[in-house]
Amino acid sequence: GYLARVRGVRAGPEHIVLCSGAAHGLRLLAQVVGGPWAAEEYGLPFHRGLLASHGVGTRPLGVDADGARVDGLNHRDRAVLLTPAHQFPTGGPLHAARRSAVVDWARATGGLVVEDDYDGEFRYDRQPVGAVQGLDPEHVVLLGSVSKSLSPTLRIGWMVLPRRLVGPVVAAKGDREQFSSATEQLTLADFVESGAYDRQVRRMRQRHRRRRDQLVAALERRAPHVRVTGIAAGLHAVVELPAGTERTTVRAAGRLGLAVEGLGDYLHPGAESAARTGGVETPARDGLVVGYATPPEAGYPEALEVLCRALPPG
Predict the structure, then answer these.
(1) Which residue in 143, 145, 147, 140 sits closest to 112, CA to CA?
(2) Which among 30, 33, 229, 265 is placed 20 to 30 Å from 199, CA to CA?
(3) Residue 6 shares a structural domain with residue 47
(4) Contacting residues for 52 by C-beta, under 8 A, at least 6 apart
(5) Distance between CA 172 and CA 302 in Å, rounded?
(6) What's the CA gap between 279 and 274, in Å, rounded?
(7) Does 158 lie in the same domain as 50?
(8) Are 237 and 261 in contact (CB under 8 A)?
(9) How far apart (Å, rounded) are the C-alpha atoms in residues 110 and 193?
(10) pLDDT of residue 276
């Protein structure tokens, strides 16, 4: 199937449960697995809040150029939430040694690796990184959706589950589909089977690569003093900033009519206190998270111009 061919997933159809997206999948896993979980210190606050609303606390794992510091996992963690293909939002893939290490942790402790394949299909320098799920299908859950490849309004996602979790997750989900109809799901199945989904992903990849190149070129031309990272894959880049300038830069962009987010907006609330006590080795970083997938074509050059004007001088 598609997931086996493109993402290296090892699973039969009986291990795949449809859901309405990553958030729905996380909610079901929180109900079934319980807590506590570990999570990357930089990640979507919405996901952490969703887990917390179901009684599952999270603690931060440090993140560096090789992805999450999985050596910080312990036997008390019931699960770990990761974005291994392209760490969100800092942008690096999880190093091969750490991919093996997190699977070893799961085997040794009975923990669960929850792999959020947020934008894993969009890699520009080489073929997409294979899913961690392919290393150990009985200890890894892969979460995916069509929100980035087709449309966020099409609320269809999937969970590739270990055998032992299929029954409990299906029971927690119940019979009702929350947001997507059976007709939409069958249409997507035909879309994948016919090869049309592959063609759509290739078109989107070319479009996003072009957008990324425009962003990098604008920054090289107008702000050569800044460093851009996380551009090998995904739908956004990180523009690194001098220490202490993130909030003022976000406000400056806002005054110019451009909404951007700082890296600090994604930092786990426990990360800074953990850093002070030696629990996390990576200090907070200053930077902007700049998405290039959604701005309309006509307004994109102007948005890049505004971004460059908002940056601190070199």
Answers:
(1) 140
(2) 229
(3) yes
(4) 58
(5) 47
(6) 5
(7) yes
(8) no
(9) 35
(10) 43
